[in-house]
Write a structure and sequence with these properties.
Elements: H1 10-19, E1 22-23, E2 34-48, E3 51-60, E4 63-70, E5 83-88, E6 90-93, E7 96-100, E8 103-106, E9 120-123
Parallel strand pairs: 1-2, 2-9, 4-7
Antiparallel strand pairs: 2-3, 2-5, 3-4, 5-8, 6-7
Length: 126
């Protein structure tokens, strides 16, 4: 299992306690820490004046949330089709829900995803 944490252990267990058990995407509440599970439907890289941003859309049976990683062009393992669990604090941004720089774990083997699909580089408009 790949994780965004370099060292598993008690801190990892503390994260699970802080964010709680997995919730449905439709039940996320802005500014309340949460854990969500699902599959990545889309990934993309946005180029902006302040550096790149990698976005991954996590979907479950109830909806979608966008995982936003600042300063990243790609993240190994985060490809369309992969199952992941993400922990963070959701926020509303226009008509979408986002979690900024979430903690995450890959739940499905990479062989079950679409490893040859790359993130699209989308230039931001001025």
């Amino acid at each position: 299992m790949l994780s965004s944490r370099a060292h598993p252990g008690s801190a990892h267990d503390d994260d699970r306690d802080r964010f709680g058990p997995p919730a449905a995407v439709r039940d996320l509440v802005a500014r309340h820490p949460a854990t969500v599970r699902g599959h990545l439907r889309h990934v993309r890289t946005l180029a902006g004046a302040n550096g790149p941003t990698f976005e991954a859309e996590l979907c479950d049976a109830t909806g979608a949330v966008v995982l936003v990683f600042f300063g990243r062009r790609t993240i190994p393992g985060l490809v369309p089709g992969v199952a992941i669990e993400a922990r963070g604090t959701p926020r509303a941004n226009g008509c979408r829900t986002e979690i900024l720089n979430p903690l995450y774990e890959l739940l499905a083997p990479l062989g079950d995803a679409e490893p040859n699909r790359q993130a699209r580089d989308t230039r931001s408009e001025p």
